[in-house]
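Quick note —
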Amino acid sequence: MRKQSVTVLGSTGSIGKSTLDVMARHPDVFEVFALSASTQVEAMVQQVSAHRPQFAVMASAPHALLLRERLQVLGLSTQVLSGQVGLCEVASDARVDSVMAAIVGAAGLPSCIAAARAGKKVLLANKEALVVGGEFFMRSVREGGATLLPIDSEHSAVFQSLPDDPTTWSRRVEKIILTASGGPFRTRAPDTLGSVTPDEACAHPNWVMGRKISVDSATMMNKALEVIEARYLFGMSPRQIEVVIHPQSVIHSMVQYVDASVVAQLGTPDMRGPIAYGLSWPERVVSGASAIDFKVLSALTFEEADPLRFPGLPLAWQALDAPPGTTAVLNAANEVAVEAFLNRRIRFDQIHAVNLSTLSGCVPSLVDDLDALVALDAEARSFAAQRVQALAA
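Predicted structure written out below.
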């Protein structure tokens, strides 16, 4: 493989750190072009010192100024940029081959679109780009001639289990089956979820993740967003996408073919596996993840998601059946609700109430460009914030 120049957006998060770990194992194959973070200046100083990128981007100008001053003291020449302009610049730079899109939430959409329009290999760990952007984002990928590769373990598993030729999927594939661990409350009585604390919701049994995505896993809203992502990634109808709980997180997802055969991708619950596959595709490189030891592997079990415990999951199909833009409304509402829960303003079981009421009260009109999506996102956030305020009163 020729050497790839990689921009890592969201480098101080769990996906970003794992990406840099994989890249560091193959210095002859990958080099860091740019890194980005939101507010973690000291973490960025450490990453810049270790990987010496040409650019580092912070979300705000004040944080960029702090980083610039710290790097100057250390004698490091990395150029510091800020805001969406800086993110889009390092995502679309002509010297970049691949972009790891790992910024959490809708904030990652503009830089994902910039990378797509510039024809990059886009490694999509930010599912919100598709949940919010939908067909608009996919059109940017097609028009820019970009290569879109999923990094979520479930979507990477589906991608690895599908035929190589996408033109055959419609006649050969019956459905996609996304697996879910069930999170920390898989067996907890639904009527006790009102007392859940943020720390309890973030204690995922299998995966090490950020707090927002950990809460999404606990509500299974993360899986709802993955259903939406799968619909756009693989061009399947919503009714061709199913979810099954698989507590061991060994089978990452499956594809069922028209002849009833099922192809699955297995691996240990370590995001370095799908990250390494995305970085090296269509080849493979050592990821650093442990291999499955089948001699000691416990039983693999499956169960249906309880709608009383996980009422947010069906919202995926509801949003996909609604007018375009509804998935963006759902995502915005959920981001506001999860933040409110983590700040102890609403209860865990009220996250669904915020999402449901926002879907009912914020109906999108024509959404056909980035400005319209940004406006819709802001409208939905405002509506959800009002609902949070009412619940917190």
